[in-house]
């Protein structure tokens, strides 16, 4: 199976500045209070970034926490030939970098916009001042960082302990919402980029996709994927039934 070269994605309209939805999604449950959302919206600096442009670069000083409000982006590092080695794809609302500014360290990866995106940047020094009077909001940032550590731990375990089919199956399962029998998704990355995330060659990924399709686990039409047997996919990923 051959995946076509992706085009820059069209982006939905970004949320209005007063719309609390991106912040509520980014912080998860329990929902942020209206006062906490108001403070974040007050200090956030909104910035549009055109498709194909960098949101920030590897090694650039990080003075803000960066939330992707809308659109799609990838995180990765530049190879010797200048191409971006993709490590993770991100769809807004989601954090692009919620840790570097806390450490007063540069961004560890480059963030590249796949579509036109809008980001919200929280200046860390201004945020610190507000957190002295809002300890519960500070705890929510701690929870965000804990979730990120957990996600990275799971990704590392997947790469170290699972074979190629299990790694690919787990990658698909993580993109399937809910616990039903089937799901549909749209792959945003090129096959080469997906293979890089899973520590395999594009040829290996192509063979796996053909195998999964032949077994009736999923079907692919261009970049649209329909998972027909989600329980089987979870079993292939090594998850408990």
Automatic annotation (TrEMBL):
SMART domains: HTH_CRP (SM00419). One of its GO terms (cellular component) is cytosol. One of its GO terms (molecular function) is DNA-binding transcription factor activity. InterPro entries: cNMP-bd_dom, cNMP-bd_dom_sf, Env_Response_Regulators, HTH_CRP, RmlC-like_jellyroll, WH-like_DNA-bd_sf, WH_DNA-bd_sf. The keyword Transmembrane does not apply. Keywords: DNA-binding, Transcription, Transcription regulation. Transmembrane segments: none annotated. It comes from the Bacteria. Residues 162-231 form the HTH crp-type domain. This is CRP-like cAMP-binding protein. It comes from Sphaerotilus mobilis.
């Amino acid at each position: 199976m051959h995946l076509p070269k992706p085009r820059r994605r069209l982006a939905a309209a970004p949320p209005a500045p007063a719309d609390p939805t991106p912040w509520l999604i980014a912080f998860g449950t329990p929902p942020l209070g209206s006062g906490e959302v108001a403070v974040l919206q007050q200090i956030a600096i909104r910035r549009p970034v055109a498709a194909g442009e960098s949101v920030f670069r590897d090694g650039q000083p990080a003075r803000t926490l960066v939330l992707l409000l809308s659109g799609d982006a990838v995180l990765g590092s530049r190879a010797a030939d200048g191409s971006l080695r993709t490590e993770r794809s991100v769809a807004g609302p989601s954090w692009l970098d919620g840790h570097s500014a806390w450490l007063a360290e540069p961004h560890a990866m480059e963030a590249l916009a796949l579509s036109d995106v809008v980001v919200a940047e929280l200046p860390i020094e201004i945020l610190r001042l507000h957190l002295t009077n809002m300890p519960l909001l500070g705890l929510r940032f701690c929870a965000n960082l804990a979730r990120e550590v957990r996600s990275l731990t799971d990704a590392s375990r997947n790469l170290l302990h699972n074979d190629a089919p299990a790694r690919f199956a787990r990658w698909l399962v993580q993109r399937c919402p809910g616990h039903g029998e089937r799901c549909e998704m749209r792959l945003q990355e090129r096959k080469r980029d997906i293979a890089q995330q899973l520590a395999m060659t594009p040829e290996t990924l192509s063979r796996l996709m053909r195998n999964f399709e032949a077994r009736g686990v999923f079907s692919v039409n261009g970049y649209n994927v329909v998972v027909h047997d989600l329980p089987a996919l979870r079993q292939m990923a090594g998850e408990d039934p």
